[in-house]
Amino acid sequence: MKTKETIKRKTTDVLIIGSGVAGLTFAIKLAKKRPDLQITIVTKNKIDDSNTKFAQGGIATVWDIEKDNFEKHIADTMDAGDELNDLEAVEMVITEGPKRVRELIEWGARFDKKDNGNLELGKEGGHSENRVLHYKDITGWEVERTLVEMVKSIKNISVHENFFALELITQHHLGRIISKVTPDTKAYGAYVFNKKDLIIETILAKTTVIATGGAGQLYSITTNPEGATGDGIAMVYRAKGRIANMEFVQFHPTALYTKIEESPNFLVSEAVRGHGGILRTEDGEDFMIKYDKRGSLAPRDIVARAIDNEMKVRGVNNVFLDVRHIEKNDFVKHFPNIYEKCLSEGIDPMKDMIPVAPACHYFCGGIVVDKKGKTSIKNLYAAGEATYSGLHGANRLASNSLLEGLVYAHNICENIADEIDEIQINNEIPDWNITSTKEPKEMVLITQSLKEIRDVMGSYVGIVRNNIRLKRAINRILLYYKETEELYKSSVISEQLCELRNLITIAYLVTRSSQNRHESRGLNYNTDYPDKLPYNELTLV
Question: Residue 481: which CATH number?
């Protein structure tokens, strides 16, 4: 499709890019606190199409104070993150968490309750206590539903669906050369591709918030929806913002394994193991006991590597999750969607073990933010999976992600509400420079490059890495980068081309970051550097 020459221009007080838990929560809070502000949300698909919607497990927070406490949750988070976490960030999120979850409940979020009316708390890998609030096995769907309904009821929030953010606007677009060490780089909004009208819009804002989620589509096997292409991280990198710890890509241990490929891969929630499910080999061996004393409830990085090793040693494509010992009504009550999905694949969980294998699930690195959600670029904030806040360290503890989004959305709101009146919109920004109106001669150039970059990442930058694989990967990635940039400069804007461009950027960041970390820690396991170093450092790219 050909991009039209027409360009629209609009201004807003606050521009939010993304519509998951972080973006929507921030919009609601700021709109309530400052009804005088105009808040604009742009999302590249429908408003409810986000990683948040796909979250099954729940929200981890200290709720039962008779059995649990902040110290335990903090310790579990630090242990899962292999002590690479920022302790102050961990303490802040864990201690503020219950307040933010109560607000979500006040807004209408429903969580499962016991017969006595108390919230039912689940347990997942890496947690020492039951502290996961959930809604059946579709907690993310319930959270997204709640937030979308709230957003639609607030007058000073406008939502633009099918708007693809292309580039952050900085001094670069005024002809100034900037770099990562430029001290006063500022964000003025973003250039956005209106996919419906096929025009590029200039949206100028006093403040911009990145809440675009992760980049699971970088791998062919992933639990992430098709829109998870790392757009926000790639935009900030191109704008010379600080990016850190991209080597820490979390592979969820238990995606449903089927012989027919599907995308995204169906996730079998960690809550199933918290409910008593046991990982086994085909012959019934409880193999996780060999790798960790916590067995099937070890943190995700340990479980994923163990499964990967068992699959390679045995020459198989999957292991199994055994729930046959769980009472049927109990299992169906807690995991109705997982049960139905298994039946649709010809698997009866009450009679058959469920075939599972690891799949790309979550990015623990990203845009560097402080505790207020500020990035290294002035007037630019970020929250959620697109960020490196220090909460997750080298590996995310199960069900801490939604909690992070809630807490950082609140903190950004408090900060922006106090500072936004001092910021002026820059009306000198030029509109997007349309340099070409040529269509790509062959769409196969894009689709094939996407397939190949995913193959490279899966083969060379997966759960287990080494220096030879990483070197081969970086050589391939740089070739794809050169080819794609040439195509980008000579072709009209399209969503497929922009997503490919962003994913190649993410591939480079993940691979180069892994090369730069000379240790095995958390999610970064390199057989050439099997030991953990005695100090904590960020991997900046």
Answer: 1.20.58.100
